[in-house]
Amino acid sequence: MKNTKPLEEGDVIEIKDGHEIYAVVPEHFLYESKKGCFKLVCGSVTVGGELSYLGGIYVVQRVSEDGEGPSSYGLAYGKKAIDNESGRRVYCVNESSGREISFFQTGKFRPVIKDIEPIGKARLKWCLPDGHETGGSMCAGRATDLALFRGGAPGFKLFQYDE
To answer: 126 exposed, middle or buried (CB, 10 Å; 0-12, 13-18, 19+)?
Structure first.
């Protein structure tokens, strides 16, 4: 059964073997000519085999419409416009490893995962590290392994999963 509802920020998904995603991996996984090269680069890979570690539970951090609209290339030559419709790009993070991935859910782009269902919903809670005044309540204790620190100090994003 196809998921007709687009993924949203906070959806919890499972990436499995066979899914195509953008991820940061050693270059030798992307290019035949780079065997033995361990420089980290972002590229399109299929989860599985040596890349099975990319599978797991991810939280959707943001979604955007990426790509290009219809191209006017060729119109000057009397040709039909090339349809490069935008696609819905999904950006995710694995809370336990901090690994970030992305993929398209719509459009004519790769990698694409069109049939993916959320397995839960994450609630986002901002809290300050211990010792900071919040003007109200503070998070109980320290942010644990479910916490992500993202830029703008001080602040933790604490995801709690509702399954």
So the answer is: exposed
Residue with tokens 């993070």: 93
Cα 55 to chain centroid distance, Å, stands at 12
Q: Report which residue type is found at 129.
A: P
Whole-number CA gyration radius for the chain:
19
Q: Which residues contact 33 (CB under 8 A, 6 or more apart)?
A: none
Highest mean pLDDT among 23-27, 32-36, 82-86, 129-133: 23-27
Q: Does the bond joining 6 to the residue before it have cis omega, within 30 degrees of 0?
A: no
Asked if 126 contacts 156 with a C-beta cutoff of 8 angstroms, the reply is yes
Which residue shows structure tokens 């109200």?
A: 136
Strand partners, 88: 65
* Single pTM value for the model: 0.68
Distance CA 29, CA 75 (A): 39
DSSP 127: E
Q: Give the span between the Cα atoms of 106 and 113, in whole angstroms.
A: 8
